[in-house]
Write a structure and sequence with these properties.
By secondary structure, this protein is an alpha/beta fold. It has nine helices and eleven strands. It has helices at residues 2-55, 132-141, 158-166, 172-187, 205-216, 233-239, 246-254, 282-291, 313-325, and strands at 59-60, 66-67, 77-84, 88-97, 100-109, 115-121, 144-148, 193-203, 222-226, 268-276, 296-304. Helix 8 (282-291) links the parallel strand 10 (268-276) and strand 11.
Length: 327
Amino acid sequence: MAKKRKINTTTKTQQIQPQNTDKDIPLRKIIIGIGCLLILTGVVWIIFSNTQADEQEWAVDEQGILSYPADRTEPVFESRIDEYNSEFTLEYLNYSSRDATISAAVRIPNSSVPVPGVLILPGATVTKEGEQGLALELIEMGYASMVIDQRNLGVVDVQHDEELFDAGEEPVEHKMVFDALMAVDVMRQYPKINPQNIAIIGISNGGRFAITAAGIDPSIKGVIGISTSGYNTESIISNSPNPLSETRIRFLRSIDPESYLDKLAPRKLVMIHMEHDSIISVYMAKTTYDKAEEPKAFYPIEGTGHGYNSAMRPHLEDELEQIFNTI
């Protein structure tokens, strides 16, 4: 009898197990199906994301004009308050731009209403800290400001950039223009800055990126170039002893702010320059200015030096007021 019970128990177990397995088969099929669907969805998402990323890429047309999508990705940044007093708040922040993290300093005057904002692009080798004197003067005028540390601190390598361009890769100088565009987007995230009233001041090499960025983004209210100029590329092309390749011509035009002058109007271009600037001559600045359309203004300042100084303030203050009060 014991043996019989053992056999019956085994038999029952064998009968029960196949029944449970049969019930599990549809469930396993469902789980496998869901897993495959999730994998397929992930693949489609990756492909779609890559397509979107491609659409966000830079482009240079046949005329050599650089462009970026008008609908840029939402800026990603983190900030901390460094100073708060009765006159202003000073924040330091880092924001993402292309393949880099850009550092910046933001000063916002204490005001009950949103104020106009000014993006400041320093000259080569100049840090954001090096332009805080100008930022404080803008506070006195009632304007917020953001000064960025440009890639390579604004130093450019034209030869290397041309090699990148020839290889179909994005030149650093193009990325620096995008950095400026993203900086404007970051400023627009601050409730105390009027998002519709942001202008750019560019100093020396920073002025070149400022003019180019303003030419690309029509929402920027105006641009002021201090101690800056274009490269006079069209003259270089026409006077070259040997014909330049179409690729090289496109590249040279793409990095020359003069290529974007006709895209500024009806917004105003202002240029302020020391008459005896030994780094960028006033002649070069005037050559660039003469190519721009109205409205525009040029202020030669008597004396030597390169970059912003207090003698420029009256013109800067008057012109910013006009830029921000233009509908």
